Amino acid sequence: MKISSISEFKKMSDFYRKSLQKQYKKVIVCGGTGCVAGGSLKVYERLKNLIEERGILAEVDLEKEQEGIGVKKSGCHGFCEKGPLVRIEPNKYLYIKVKPEDCEEIVNETLINNRPVERLMYRFNGDIYETQESIPFYEKQTRIVLEHCGHIDAESIQEYIANDGYTALIKVLEEMTPEEVCKEIVDSNLRGRGGGGYPTGKKWSQVLSYPSEVKYVVCNGDEGDPGAFMDRSIMEGDPHSLIEGMTIAAYATRATEGYIYVRAEYPLAVKRLTTAIEQAREMGLLGKNILGTGLSFDIHINKGAGAFVCGEGSALMASIQGERGMPRVKVKRTVEEGLWQKPTVMNNVETYANVRHIITKGADWFRSFGTESSSGTKAFALSGNVNNTGLIEVPMGATLREIIFDIGGGIKGGKKFKAVQIGGPSGGCLMEDHLDMPLDFDSLKDVGAMIGSGGMVVLDEDTCMVSVARFFMNFTQNESCGKCIPCREGTKRMLQILDKIIEGKGKMKDLDLLEELADTITNTALCGLGKSAANPVISSMRYFRDEYIQHIVDKRCPTKNCSKLRTIEIDPEICKGCSKCSRSCPVGAIDGKVKEVFRIDQSKCIKCGACMEACPFAAIREA
Amino acid sequence: MDKVDKVIELYGKEQSSIITILQELQNEFRYLPVEVLERVSEKMDISPAKLFGIATFYENFSLNPKGKYLIKICDGTACHVKKSIPVLEAIREELSLTGEKQTTDDLLFTVETVSCLGSCGLAPVMTINDAVYGELTPERAVEIIRQLKEGQGNEDK
Questions:
Q1: Is residue A5 part of a domain?
Q2: Measured by CB atoms within 10 angstroms of the end CB, which terminus of chain B is less buried, N or C?
Q3: Average pLDDT of A17-38?
Q4: Interstrand relation of B69-74 and B109-114 (parallel, antiparallel or unpaired)
Q5: What angle do the packed helices A239-253 and A167-175 form, to 10 degrees?
Q6: Banded pLDDT at B155 (limits 50, 70, 90)
Q7: How far apart are alpha carbons A262 and A74 in whole angstroms?
Q8: The predicted structure's pLDDT at residue B156
Q9: pLDDT per residue over A43-85, tens digit each?
């Protein structure tokens, strides 16, 4: 139904709010990519059926004031490690690893008799955590951008509106001029969450200042950094917050058209955004003459086609225009000549999702979170060798120790912390010395890393830092668009050198060469991706130089990751001469007489480890 | 070629639609045959060279036929440190594929690696035609492939 005025919208949102309260219980099943892979959709169907079998309404329509138990699919709850997750309101219970077989008990105990099902609750050190908010993983977080993720139905505009959705847009339309909106964002000190940290308000003010009939608002949802999934979770879990943020940006800069560029690897995000845009259009919140105020703005979705470089602003715009996604030399900046040479606002998903909170609660409120130079919160994707993997949000200035040990629950398997890789292929490694450093845009830059889009991969003591550096160089080399020589050739040479080191053929002067190449690429590459391509190598060389030297001089990988540097030996004390190893060896490198000690011919051995698995006496091990 | 014309009609002849059009056609044919590209070039008035440039730039487009089951194994940072490479090697071995030969001769399976599927919480991860499989081990991955093979056998009967 199309809403044609602000007063009508307010009536509508009051109605939805009242209507939502009629749901005396809510069952929120996680419908994020992670939990769906774990089978959450089956759990959702099962719960719905069981409730309906008892004659209770489970699919409650907010358009009608219906009483019932609202069963809904939300976006990512964040605690992906423990999925599929089911949250029950108003009890605030969080059930973890829920299977379809558990649903009967949930319905009977919790929904009908209002009792917790303790066996499905999170346990740690013998304690049972009844409510979601009491679990350390959630308790230590500050959720602003992710407020709705895991709490509301991700596919319902009505529910978004009932939870104060689009009130920021109404406030802007009723009470503020575009200049005032820009000023509020400037005052809030919101900085771009995509990595660079450029002040958002400054960007908007510049676009507003250029007179042009046509201007664009672009959302960069090409979250290509390996290890990052914050933006995906927002697009999947709270798509309307992105649409609202972009619409406010359009009002503030007098733009009329918007584009969201999403990775093709995120099919669910594309689906949810498409639905959300259609819903907003139907209600008159997008399109011509929004809510009868004269503001016209519409949003299109562009699906990426698998090119990492399209996460770079000018490459992304080329891709929207239907060209090869290659960065251009920025004689004029995007704010002046962006998409189709028109003034363009470009921000990333999380940045836009912050906007509605700043407008409704004010710049001062926003600045009360975070540090002096970086206000607000930041979402991080926590993954790797950590106990609680998932999506988290903390105030800027939080320390790595808080994130990894308090929220993340420490290192998996009781291993020792070694490093954290932050910021993906443009970022760097942080080590133990940095655990207590407050994280923000500037502090990270000072130690040679960057926030990037917020991927945080935790590495334990068994990780080889040279291999990690090689991994990122291989990634960047693959994804280099090939336009400028420093990046195209430089990354290839750096990769070759790293390969040599990993194979035990490195020389000490290779380290100097790596540094020289890194310096050249950083200073001469065309785009941001090229300029930062050497970061992972440089930062690991800075903090883990000893490991490089061990690979080069001792021909040894201290973590035993690099297969070409392994030496496998048979312990003559333990070997019983059963010949199993010799029979399992694929290259015939093991020889000996039965009932005597067997020997490995190191020149033939391919270090595959098959003999180690075959030996019944554990006599074969790495030297 | 009717299909090509229909897709172009649906999305329009502006150059900005080209990537969407190629994506649709790739979905339809599972790759971009030369005849299809020629038709697009003619209909949309884009030179064949330029169109070829676009089609080869983006990783998702393929000029060679792909398998019915497109398996994308994630080798992003999180998956990598959680041992995605042994999973990849096990699947390649099961299907007798290599880094160069990515599609089985019966056009049933294509195995590719991707940089990140954004499901790092479930690492290591793969997708088969957009369905996500998480927390893989080499054994489980091979099991899934075998089930698909068997299912295929049943379908044929």
A1: no
A2: C
A3: 90
A4: parallel
A5: 10
A6: very low
A7: 20
A8: 39
A9: 999 999 999 999 998 888 888 888 899 999 998 888 888 889 9
Here the CATH number for the domain that contains residue A89 is 3.40.30.10
What pLDDT sits at residue B87?
92
CA dist A350 → A35, A328, A387, A403, A504 (Å): 21, 25, 25, 19, 43
Q: A130-156 pLDDT, tens per residue?
A: 999 999 999 999 999 999 998 999 999
Same structural domain, A504 and A523: yes
Residue the block writes with tokens 């996680």: A30
Whether A384 sits inside 8 A of B59 (CB atoms) is no
Query: Structural domain of residue A402, as residue ranges?
Result: 377-460
Q: Do B58 and A267 touch (CB under 8 A)?
A: no
Residue B103 token pair: 């599609």
List chain A residues with CB under 8 Å of B41.
none
Mean pLDDT, range B141-155, rounded to an integer: 81
φ, ψ of residue A144 to 5 degrees: the values are -110, -60
In chain B, where the domains are located:
2-57, 69-156
The residue in chain A having the minimum alpha-carbon distance to the alpha carbon of residue B79 is A384
Question: Which residue in the set A228, A303, A321 is minimally distant from B15, CB to CB?
Answer: A321
**One-letter amino acid for residue A240 of the chain:** H
H helices of A544-609, where? Answer: 545-552, 580-584
Q: Are residues A57 and A30 in the same domain?
A: yes
Contact A109, A115 (CB under 8 A): yes
Give A27's strand partners.
A71, A88
Pick the CATH number of B69-156 from 1.10.260.40, 3.30.479.30, 3.40.30.10, 2.30.30.240: 3.40.30.10
For residue A623, is pLDDT > 80?
no
Whether residues A602 and A472 fall in one domain: no
